Amino acid sequence: AAGPSAQDLLCINTIRTLSMDGVQKANSGHPGTPMAMAAPAYALWQNVLNYDPADPLWPNRDRFVLSIGHASMLIYSLIYLAGVRDVKHGTVLDAPSLTLEDLKQFRQLDSRTPGHPEYHHTAGVETTTGPLGQGCGNSVGMAIAEKWLANRFNKPGFPLFDYHVYTFCGDGDMMEGVASEAASTAGHLRLGNLTWVYDSNRISIEGSTDIAFTENVQKRFEGYGWHVLEVKDANDLPAFQAALADAKAETGRPTLIIVHSVIGWGAPKKAGTAAAHGEPLGGEEIRGAKKAYGWPEDQSFFVPDGVLDYFQQGLGARGAAASKAWKDLYAAYAKEYPELAAELADILSGTLPAGWDKDIPVYEANPKGIATRQSSGEVLNAIAPNFPWLIGGSADLSPSTKTNLTFQGAGSFQPPEWNGSYGGRNLHFGVREHAMGSICNGISLAGIRAYCSGFLIFSDYMKPPIRLSALMNQPVIYIFTHDSIGVGEDGPTHQPIEQLAQLRATPGVTTIRPGDANEVAEAWRTILPMTGRPSVLILSRQNLPTLDRTVYAPASGLAKGAYVLADSDGTPDVILMATGSEVSLVVQAYETLKAEGVKVRVVSMPSWDLFEAQPKAYRDSVLPPSVTGRVAVEMAAPMGWDRYVGLTGAIIAMHGFGASAPAGELLKKFGFTVDAVLAEARKQAAKA
Amino acid sequence: AAGPSAQDLLCINTIRTLSMDGVQKANSGHPGTPMAMAAPAYALWQNVLNYDPADPLWPNRDRFVLSIGHASMLIYSLIYLAGVRDVKHGTVLDAPSLTLEDLKQFRQLDSRTPGHPEYHHTAGVETTTGPLGQGCGNSVGMAIAEKWLANRFNKPGFPLFDYHVYTFCGDGDMMEGVASEAASTAGHLRLGNLTWVYDSNRISIEGSTDIAFTENVQKRFEGYGWHVLEVKDANDLPAFQAALADAKAETGRPTLIIVHSVIGWGAPKKAGTAAAHGEPLGGEEIRGAKKAYGWPEDQSFFVPDGVLDYFQQGLGARGAAASKAWKDLYAAYAKEYPELAAELADILSGTLPAGWDKDIPVYEANPKGIATRQSSGEVLNAIAPNFPWLIGGSADLSPSTKTNLTFQGAGSFQPPEWNGSYGGRNLHFGVREHAMGSICNGISLAGIRAYCSGFLIFSDYMKPPIRLSALMNQPVIYIFTHDSIGVGEDGPTHQPIEQLAQLRATPGVTTIRPGDANEVAEAWRTILPMTGRPSVLILSRQNLPTLDRTVYAPASGLAKGAYVLADSDGTPDVILMATGSEVSLVVQAYETLKAEGVKVRVVSMPSWDLFEAQPKAYRDSVLPPSVTGRVAVEMAAPMGWDRYVGLTGAIIAMHGFGASAPAGELLKKFGFTVDAVLAEARKQAAKA
């Protein structure tokens, strides 16, 4: 096979040297992988990727995911060389996403080129990567999204969606469990629109992968049901392009292309060593590498004449034609299928469908009540028929989390081979919590509203993607049931204690623990319009009374995070605050105290972060600073409640792990009883 | 092949019916898997397991791990039938671990038979399982421990350690990423002493595994380098025992035995369905199953005559002989190798080696100082030569976490095939954080002191095993470096915010964030004697000044969690408190304020939970309730600090994600400057 043309080589070496120079100037970063993978990345972008640099928002663009996010200079160099345009507030600007100057500002304060690629920060970056394995999971979500969009919107003669998802991953990704889970899922779902390019350089931070990673990756992926190809030399462009063509042609299975590369390719001493991985090469090695590339040795950030043009002639021209053809197709489609076109426009703009909330139920007062997981399932099923692109599922727990969409036609998302349809709205993630979160981020990045569910304790298995939803401002909805020792018999391995604190402490996440069925309804009403951040719903396994809202304040107060549910005449002597299942407990205590003549207020506090976002005046109206008699009740770790009870208030919480027993007995054992609340409340009221 | 004998079948059906009855009486639990896997579990225990029910602490016993912890009635039935003795405070009692009455108390308050098997709660349970995949990871750690112990203690003619580890796992385990990571690790390490028995019943909670899990598990495990066997019928005892023999004979690779089973075997309607998985069968199905087994249909918890005896004749007699032989061997060994025998006794009793702390360095004052990751690496390397069974490593980050043991002979734990030795003390976990934690729990359960390390942000990838260390009281040491925005250029994906709060909120975990090199030394001095709980060390990437302890209070105050580092004459007007890298920042502010005549105190607060464990008098002496002028400074989420600053104090913390830039610039950007501390301190002091 012929090697790369001189022009190709010039482009490839430009990517390599820009990457080396960027890292060197920052005195921080990872030069080795961009040098190793410049050729395949170039070949993919320049000759294959269906991508229009002039419109990085084009809905049917191929997706490029750099799961090896530490190799960020690779994608920044490509974005610059390809001339990807900038985007602001959902609009493409007539300005480049990155300039040469931006590359020189790599890893500097407020630059466009942060250490790891960040979605929304740099146009052309499709997802935030760096935590290994996440890009792999995201890419499976993106491929699922394509299948779903194609199923819903494609019509005869109108192949609106047929994009392909390409992921560059490395040895680290291959070792991470989340990528394994995602790969198994992709194989099951037969995602023929997905290609992972595995940079097998056999070098990790501690040295050769021989010290920890000697499995047969090809065989493993064949076990997952993948199509596996191998390219023996990362610099062999024809071989790599042939593999890409094979991958595209295989529409019934995802493809893994194992590319053997030399980390730090071209560096005279550091090539092929861990020293090329995570630190600048140093002046001498850089000069040596540039010499090997036939580059001016002492010039930094050198872009030879013609390189930018050549990208425009290749990727630029191909992408422009493809996106124009698609836009023409879409215009015709909009005439033929105006409703679907309008729906697609809503999806792409993050607009909620009209009337999405019209069937949300109102719950009658009921002392026995229902579990919030149950009411949430009902509310979800009341919304979803009116919200066609709300899709999701569970990590093999939907009968318990009540997240299955049960209305006619909801269907399961499955490949035809498993007698299903890619138009199904119920996703079955299997017992793979971590991949579930990561996949939902990928689905969400396509504009589809994704939810996923599991037991709250297993949020521990999927914390990284929850954090990334927040960092990327993705409105993934996390539904976590079995929220406390109320789980009962399953015992301490299944009873969350610290998980609420964890989620509340995570920036950019809205955590809501509703106290009854009507708060659940309000929670959904609140969550869905929040399209710029993830939400977490924390729900009970056990029944909770449905409060009589003719007696207590309306549940609409939930939107403010905390609200006065029941009050005294005049300034209260003590404020009882609680969330979730403990709200009805403090309401019971309130009724007793009120009958005794104690001046008591009940604050339902389903969401701390919604409350903290309120003006101080509102917060002080709910929790008047002058009232220091305060009791907080929550069946979770006490961390954080001091903020609301102060140095002298009382917190009734869990101070260790739970136990296995019927829930009612656990509540007694751990002191979540009306009597316990009364005792603390009386002490606090006595301070007044 | 002949089927099971009548006597065998009686035992197997006793396991099945006890399991069904236990779940039914509790009205909660998972009957289907015990019914399906009773035959293989029986065959393993009765005919193969090298286990002495009369001495469940026998060091060379084979380990049985029930990774499918929801099938807890399976192991409880076995423990009861085998007559495993009880253990209390490390001593075997002359009483059974479980009685028939205990089985009847399944999942009841304070019973010996909680919903999922709990280590230390029920003798015979080797590790706490339930969160799927964890038992798989633990078992890899146990197998590593055996290899290490054998390498260290076995001598010609004295094969002290040659135990085998058996793990029962299910479809859920196979789907969990942590198990994938652990399997890849076990394959690399060539753990021929490990056998996983995979219960392939093709039923998960949402229904057939066809909806989510259709990979070729055999091929996947062959890719990992495992020896894979298949048993087509879980009830075919000869076939299963032949597979176990094959597994034992294959000493160069771990073995996966895929056992095809029918969940709820014998139940007339629910067998083979998801209905048999997670809820009681109901009276009718139980009667039907009992009829199918030839059992008295209306008798519960029925143990036919002879069954208990038969277990004693099989497992009991074999185990007694084996453990006696081993004890004789050990007695002879102790004469020949008294020092090694004494060391082994220390390991098994959790005693620290004499003089383990004698070389811990003291650091001279140094304004430039060193990173706490660096001083921690030095302290670790000063302790480890004197603590021969302290072993550990990193998830491919040891050059960054500084956890490599560098002294002569420390070595890498590797199989001979990779030119290493199982006596090595540096473990290479690869980029597999989750398995790393789970493996360390397994190593720790063997009495070996295990540590592991990574970046603090990636503690998110391994939260479940950290929690399980705490639940099991295992003294695993978690070393997390790169603790804040001090990470700098790597940016927000790599900068922890909420992780400190998460770890502090987790029950039973001691989290320490030392403020300088001498606090690091004290942290290690504090951690190692705490043999009943995990510890987490939080360390900086960047240099921190080494405080002059002739000017400021001694670092030994760390042991109390918080201590007065610098003080005013008389009652202070304001208390500045901080942890880690922010300690030197508040010390600088202190010096300025002191020079201005402000009465100010500095409290170094490296460990909240150690502080909370102090008597109130001490806590009040450090943070006098009368002093309400308080400023807390920490480059992390503010959650929890309100406890120490009260409703009117100030918290300088992170209120969102970090950014990518040199660390010094980030500190300015996010307000971690002496000026910012001074401004808040002056405001607070003005209140006095």
Describe this structure in words.
Two copies of one chain form a homodimer. With 688 residues, chain A is of the alpha/beta class. Chain A folds into three domains: 6-323, Rossmann fold (3-Layer(aba) Sandwich), CATH 3.40.50.970; 366-545, 3-Layer(aba) Sandwich (Rossmann fold); 558-686, Rossmann fold (3-Layer(aba) Sandwich). The first copy, chain A, is elongated, with a radius of gyration of 28 Å. Chain A starts with 5 loop residues before the first helix and ends with a helix. The model of chain A has no long low-confidence stretch (mean pLDDT 97).
Tell me the layout of helices and strands:
The structure is a homodimer of 688-residue chains.
Chain A: H1 6-26, H2 32-47, E1 63-66, H3 72-82, E2 85-88, E3 91-96, H4 100-104, H5 134-153, E4 165-170, H6 171-175, H7 177-189, E5 194-200, E6 203-204, E7 207-208, H8 217-223, E8 227-231, H9 237-249, E9 255-260, H10 283-293, H11 307-336, H12 338-349, E10 366-371, H13 372-383, E11 390-394, H14 398-401, E12 426-428, H15 433-445, E13 449-455, H16 463-471, E14 477-481, H17 499-505, E15 510-512, H18 517-527, E16 535-538, E17 543-546, E18 563-566, E19 574-578, H19 582-596, E20 600-604, H20 608-612, H21 616-622, E21 630-633, H22 642-645, E22 650-652, H23 663-669, H24 674-686
Parallel strand pairs in A: 1-4, 4-5, 5-9, 8-9, 11-12, 11-13, 13-14, 14-16, 15-16, 19-20, 19-21, 21-22
Antiparallel strand pairs in A: 2-3, 6-7, 10-17, 18-20
